[in-house]
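On clarity, I found the account of how folds are encoded harder to follow than it need be. Since the whole study asks how a given chain folds, the encoding of that fold should be made plain. The format is easy to grasp once an entry is in front of the reader. For illustration, here is how one protein appears when written out as sequence plus structure tokens.
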Amino acid sequence: MTVRRVAELAPVPLIFAAGACCARVWLPGVAGPFQTDLAQPFVIVTAWGSAGATAFAIFAATIASAAVALVLAGRRHVRAAAAHETQLVIAIAAIAIAAAFAWPFAFSSDVYAYAAYGAMLRDGFDPYVLLPRNVHGAFYDAARLQWSGPFPVCVYGPMSVAIAFSTVAGLGKLGVGSVLLALRLGTALAFLGSIALLGYALRGHPRARTFALYAYGLNPVVLWSVAEGHNDAWLLLAAVGSLTLLRRHPAAGAFFLGLTLLVKAPGAAFALAVAADPLLPARRRAGVFGGALAGVVLAASLWLPLMRPAFAAIGGHGRYAPLVSVQGLAGPAAAGILAALAVAYGGSLLLSGSRRGYAWLGIAAIVALPNGYPWYALWLVPFALAAGSGPAAVALWVATIFSAVRYLPDAVGTLDSGSARIAALVATVPLLYALTDIRFVAFRKKAPVQP
């Protein structure tokens, strides 16, 4: 770990710290109309109008600057990988997350919902059922305030609920703020643990390890999402750990990868993608397929019965509103067709032995999502890493950075149709670069063989 490498990566956390300073200097000047929000233990910018647009601008400038700094440093470092790269990335990531914690506000209320689900389980309520309106408590009322009414039913796996429950049960007496902070610290530690596992899994491949550590561990949108407390970090910790085990024990690793569905639904996608991977060595395919299928089936049998009331609540009260996405631009049908084409092309690449196909599967996920929230980057970046290099992988990674645009309509409150389309175009424009990755094979009629 050289001083030069530390100095070249230091701008990433320093930019987060500078953003925090700007936000703290700016916020008192607009605090008047938002006293209720500012009185909450974790301030979330929601429907702040022009002030929300300014808050988002500070955030967007921070993310963009940190991304540029990371790319500039990465271009120098990947070609000369260092022995202690994993420790360096963990240290830089930890400092950057700490700087993100110093911001006086965030943009997602999800951690409030996690705490409410934990409190519901503690109090004997089913988190997969809407909480009755006449039931009150510190955690419930805090979550209701964030959603301006009933907070959504739980759609996470029982392991995520168990983490929230244990945190509320252990620290609930200290107040909502302490629980929210503990949940956010937990996701930060889980993310740092996943970086360590990723570095261990890629030992012996110094350049690939350095590239993966930087693209995943120092991705600015990922770092921000971790600081907000999104439980996707727990999913990645479990997934990377399972994949590390899979290298030595294919069936067992694939089985535990399938069980990550108990944390969050994308765990099943990870497991099934690995199980169907045509690039797996032939001797491992049967064990990986069987283990992954067994893990997913077991996890689904444990989780889906719990989800039945949640499905009913979503069907009765949910609202389908695609925004800042390909669906928001072109409609669900067109987005579905484009996603299917991306899957078909990615699958054909994998069948031909090209790792570029992984990036197209990630792109298909982005295209299919009605709302590309920034924290989805946590489970989309691995698809870019698996692809290695190429325009599609670059487009997918850059799209995770541009996903930060999804916070704008929530921060402002409403966007007119024209502004919403512009935001969607900005968020999805990186995907256009992936088109340069497409290669068409021209089939020509063979010339007759001369006698």
